[in-house]
Amino acid sequence: MGTIAPRPGDATGFVVDPDGDGPAAAFDVDDPSFTLRSLRGNAVVRWEYRPGSTLFLVWTLNHQDALAEGALDLTRDVRGVFNGPVESIFLVKLNYWFGF
User: Fold this and answer.
1) CA-to-CA distance for 84 and 74, rounded, in angstroms?
2) Whether residue 11 has pLDDT greater than 90
């Protein structure tokens, strides 16, 4: 049977032994506590400029930031989500219907 124990002399990590006395080697794992802050939004505009023919405009926004601390602080986290890297994507799709 495997074991997970605190790393000796280090309060932020663990030693994992997957099979106890078996042949698999034990390995260290850092503390898995984390905070992920993320805000995602989508906006879609659809315009039918002719019957059966449409134009789509799509905007996707993703704010994401990670923190090494696992404690929730709502004020810090709401402000902090806007300090991380931003991914903004704009797409255009055009459908044209050939009516014969």
Assistant:
1) 16
2) no
